[in-house]
Amino acid sequence: MTSPVWHPFTQHGLNEPIPHVVRAEGATLHLADGSSLIDGISSWWVTTHGHCHPRIAAAIAHQAGQLDQLIFAGYTHEPAEAVARGLVDLMPQAPGRDPLAHVFFSDSGSTAVEVALKMALGYWHNRALDGLGEARSRILVLEHSYHGDTIGAMSIGERGVYNAAWTPLLFDVGTIPFPHPGREQETLAALEVACAEQPAAFIVEPLILGAGGMLIYPPHVLRAMADICARHDVLFIADEVMTGWGRTGTLFACEQAGVVPDIMAVAKGITGGAIPLAATLATPRIFEAHRSTDRARLFYHSSSYTANAIACAAAAENLAIWAEEDVRGRIAVLTQGITDRLAVLADHAAFANPRQIGTIMAIDLIAADAGYLSDLAPRLRAFFLERGLLLRPLGNTIYLMPPYCIDAQQLDAVFAALVAAGDYFG
Ligand code: PLP
Q: N6-(pyridoxal phosphate)lysine modification sites (predicted)?
């Protein structure tokens, strides 16, 4: 019987196999046919501690029997309060910078980004109501960025086949060239010029652009970009949806650059990847611009499940795991494990541009049919699937983003499959 399920980012006409997963633990997915897969990308970059972490599973089960869901407009619950307090404590800090002290919950990375954009425009709008300047609205973005698939998030992402159908719905943005090695000054000069025109905000994925091709740039460039924005009073928004929760080696990527953004979006690993939740954090000036006795200025954003109590309980447990377990130690071991094995790929004639930041590794397969619409990525997916590995290359870019609990034997198997792919496709 054919399934009625319509899968995301899936071309059903290709009739690719759709594995049926029945159970998971750690870095392993168990399939209905009795076989298993190593999850090389943490199931779309979310299951940081591995699947079905017993503490998170228990927290969810407990909360589901206590308080499941509560309208969050004007009501609150302890799991949300605990997560908000914990998040604020964990945010990047720097001398002389206002802290990210206010937490707005939502339920996906895309909505966390939408909320960030709405906060930025809301800030300038409300200041204009006070006679403090123009209501700014233009958003600056970095070339090749990806921020999600809702309309606003697509508007600020790279334009391509994946959003072409919705072009009439997307708003215009100012695009700053990506800081490729040796061309960082070009980026900074373009940002300087664009900021002088008083846009509302500049949004970036800090240190690595994910879906845009796993493109890494150095902390000093992130810092310089944030400094330019501060000098021009342009709001600096960090989208840490992918980079957060230890992915780049530090809890948040901004830490490596000493940057405290005005607004920050987090999601994915916030619950250890067990259940959807996201948050957008803002500095006091953003919050205060919305706080008054005037109902016209309140922050008009909500969804039914804002700060769902079960999701918040999972996130609170994730924060406890970060506080009580040696997550940073596991990240250090995985980072080194990837570095040690990456050398083999770097010497392989089929690959170019080996790169790594923390627990994220990427390499480009030198292939004639490397375009986004070529059949290379589906063929690579099938190749890895046959070898017991869940990977989802971006065009000819093969990347890893494993759960931190992946063991050395599994990592060996992953790299053996990558070498085999080089031999086969190169
Ligand atoms: N921002 C970044 C940097 C992302 O990588 C993603 C997803 O991959 C998103 C936003 C969107 O998150 P979600 O898929 O949870 O909506």
A: 268
